[in-house]
Amino acid sequence: MFTWLAGAQGRAHAERMVAQSREAEQRTYLRKERRDAYFAALRVAVLDVRRLRYEHARKVRKLREVERYWTKTKRIEMSMEALIALHAFGSDEARQFSVAWRVATEANDLDTMQRLVEQFRALMRVELQEG
Question: pTM of this prediction?
Fold first, then answer.
């Protein structure tokens, strides 16, 4: 009787350990996906701000340099990938950022865009440091 009980307890312990390990792997995976989504969104946002800043300042040469490297097709692709990742792995606040960002970019509102980038950076710091 004692060996059966000890064996059952050992199996139960092993099953708990496996389950905890899987949960830890899942948390790590989701955290990495969220981090990648946030950095993709930040890259798009910073690029959009840079382009609009150059446009407003009439820095045509700088704007051409940016647009030569990041073509419109490439920027659209980056934007869509970032948006999809934000909606898949981002927090409610991050998804709200994407909505506010769309409104600001459609209005070419540079001040709001710059403010949103700073708010998003702060959100990233908070969410990615939680553990």
Answer: 0.82
**How many Å separate Cα 51 from the centre of its chain?**
21
Q: Say whether pLDDT at 49 is over 80.
A: yes
DSSP letters, 63-120, are: HHHHHHHS-HHHHHHHHHHHHHHHHHH--HHHHHHHHHHHHHHHTT-HHHHHHHHHHH
Give the chain's length.
131
CA 54 – CA 107 distance, rounded (Å): 16
The predicted pLDDT at position 130 comes to 73
